[in-house]
């Protein structure tokens, strides 16, 4: 602990130095680091390309519609949150047991797959020892169904969430959102995947313009910290270091619940729905051979035109759908999914190579999983080039239609240290904790921060004046990014987003429509869950008049 405290102080000194003296000479240090990180990643890549002991990728289980009729427009599901579910974590060096919190006692995270227009009925039973909720991340649904912290489901209580899923095909998700316990509950293992299909996605699949079926695979990426092994058991550790308040990160990265799994592929194109559902970590996803791949979807649905990239950075809660083409590969070849090393923001700068803390930090190179070219097959997919012109998902919102044009809503993210800042919640004395706030305010469950008129289109501007990146998220709406630091959006930034990274010093302008179904109180927050739990969050109220009383 002592060592880590020292390290923490060094970090703080560095941050202060950067704040008051500017970056100056630190550039060379960072460049040297980056080279080291790249070398470290290369060694790991070589090891895992050759490894004979990788566990097989778990395919996440899909819940069955309980009403027995898969094809009607009703869907019924039960989700029971359980503690102490026995999970076996498989790794290249054997496996260990961990008790996690899961839905329906399933050792793996679950997938719900529905059609646009489905009337959803989701019975939730909270078998945890504390309040929980199910929040539907990225959904346009009424506030009383949104599962925010304002409508908790107490221990041993139930709630039925019902809503009509009426939004474009997309890769959404769900997770608990109880007051100040969201980070803990997600970290312990409660999170699930929610896939929406619509006429456009189904037609593309039918026309072989998008891979589907067993060529459409969810990859859920989550980092965790585990205790030392005792009798084959390693328990999850949550918030055991002083730095964890800045965002809980771990040195063990799980893909669909396993460490460094392998997945046998055919010589065809694949569609991977890549979810970063880590509490805090940002990944710069790429392949070990530097190959190009195509992004066809972002948080809120399909991209009008696939975007070719050789890496994609995703902050916590962001998702993409990507297409990887294995059709030219030789049988027996392998390639790894990695997270490329990247230059971190000043806050999460690492101090010491090879240390556990370094491995947990943002910006370290990581190996995540391996694809093995195992079976020869004919690729019958010709990827779409452009969505049909009438596709709602393909429209760009026009800034001129924004109701708040000339009076952009601003959200400024700042930080202060310990008890120095204003608005500290009863904390006395100085401590080293960083406190992050939006517009100078900590979350107050009894305060609505923003009033929005239902049915209007608005431009929001998010400015990050703190020394680390934050993934900004607002409930009940999908956004389009207009520009970053004044530079018009391009590439994957043209996709619909419910969560997006705002880098240190960056200003992002977004536009979105507050659909009429979204009446009530919703949250906006940083999706580093420890920041959100600590109050980097606010309420916006969507009402007919912009000022209705819901609570
Ligand atoms: Cu994943 Cu308040 O959200
Ligand atoms: Cu959300
Ligand atoms: Cu944050």
Describe the protein's architecture and organization.
The structure is a single chain. The chain is mainly β and 551 residues long. The protein is 13% helix and 37% strand. The chain has 6 helices and 32 strands. The chain has a 7-stranded mixed β-sheet with strand order 11-10-9-13-18-15-16, with no helix packed on it. Strands 21, 22, 24, 26, 27, 28 and 30 form a 7-stranded mixed β-sheet that branches. The protein has a 5-stranded mixed β-sheet with strand order 12-20-19-14-17, covered by helices on one side. The longest helix is centred in the first third of the chain and has 25 residues, at 26-50. It starts with a helix and ends in an 8-residue tail after the last strand. The structure holds CU-O-CU linkage (C2O) and copper (II) ion (2 copies). One copper (II) ion binds next to loops. One copper (II) ion binds at residues 135, 137, 473, 475.
List strands and helices in order, with pairings:
Blueprint: H1 2-21, H2 26-50, E1 74-91, E2 94-103, E3 111-115, E4 119-126, E5 135-137, E6 158-164, E7 170-175, H3 182-188, E8 192-197, H4 199-206, E9 216-224, E10 252-255, E11 258-259, E12 262-266, E13 269-276, E14 283-287, E15 293-298, E16 301-309, E17 312-314, E18 319-325, E19 334-339, H5 356-360, E20 366-375, E21 409-417, E22 434-438, E23 450-453, E24 457-464, E25 470-474, E26 479-484, E27 487-488, E28 496-497, E29 499-502, E30 507-513, E31 520-526, H6 529-533, E32 537-543
Parallel strand pairs: 1-4, 3-8, 9-13, 12-20, 21-24, 23-32
Antiparallel strand pairs: 1-2, 4-6, 5-7, 7-8, 9-10, 10-11, 13-18, 14-17, 14-19, 15-16, 15-18, 19-20, 21-22, 24-30, 25-29, 25-31, 26-27, 26-28, 26-30, 31-32
Bound molecules: CU-O-CU linkage and copper (II) ion (CU) (2 copies).
One copper (II) ion is lined by residues 436, 470, 526, 528, 531, 536.
